[in-house]
Amino acid sequence: MMYGLGIKISKFVFLGIMPLLLISSSGNKMDLILNQAINENLIPAYIDFEMDLAETENVVKSKKLRLLFSDEENHGTIELVVSAKNGNTDFSEGDFIVQKIDGFLNGFEGVFGYFTHKDFGEKPFFANSGFVKISRLDNNHIQGQMDITLVNDYGRTIRISDTFRNF
Questions:
Q1: CA-to-CA distance for 141 and 111, rounded, in angstroms?
Q2: 140 or 22: whose pLDDT is higher?
Q3: pLDDT confidence of residue 34
Q4: Which one-letter DSSP state was computed for residue 159?
Q5: Where do the structural domains in the chain lie, given as residue ranges?
Q6: 129, 146 Cβ separation under 8 angstroms
């Protein structure tokens, strides 16, 4: 009688509690590939950039540098917007920090960005932390480096850390 009760309790513990432990350990951190620094072929080869000035009555209120990395073959895109409220900010050299943005991009200062790629699903990844360093910028050329952690709506993260240049 006691032996049968011990088996029933063991079954209950094993079959009743074990699934709860397995379910609670599953989550966003299980996908190790997406949580490691991934650099191979994620920064697309084609780089385009443009500078925008927001002016009122001949006074520069803000500057924006837009970087667009694109790859038609893999449907990969990284777009970064570096913004400064001070019109005197020189983008040709400097470190710019990723800022979290809760609303519209008007009036923000820092780096905002997103990443899409066919191998990572339909949901875009948005810049969560990191920096962009510009070491050279003129009318036709740009050079720098980035180390950015991006997060999608599911909580998955990607870290892109590499140098870039278009010459």
A1: 20
A2: 140
A3: 41
A4: E
A5: 1-29, 31-165
A6: no
pLDDT digits (tens, 9 = 90+) for 38-94: 545 567 778 888 888 776 666 656 788 899 988 877 678 889 988 877 666 677 778
CA angle 66, 69, 70 (to 5 degrees): 130
Residues 119-138 have pLDDT tens digits of 888 889 999 999 999 998 88
Task: Give the separation between CA 32 and CA 17, rounded to whole angstroms.
Answer: 26
92 CA to centre of own chain: 23
Helices (H), 13-161: 18-25, 32-35
Question: Which residue type does 124 have?
Answer: P
Q: What does the block give as tokens for 96?
A: 């710019």
Tokens encoding 113: 């960005």
C-alpha–C-alpha distance, residues 71 and 33, integer Å: 21
Q: Which helix (H) or strand (E) holds 80?
A: strand 76-84
Full-model pTM: 0.67
By the 8 A CB rule, do 100 and 88 touch? no
Burial 64-82 (b: 16+ CB within 10 A, else e): bbebebbbeeeebbbbbbb
Round the CA-based radius of gyration of the chain to a whole number and report it.
23
Rounded to an integer, what distance in angstroms lies between the CA atom of residue 125 and that of residue 148?
A: 11
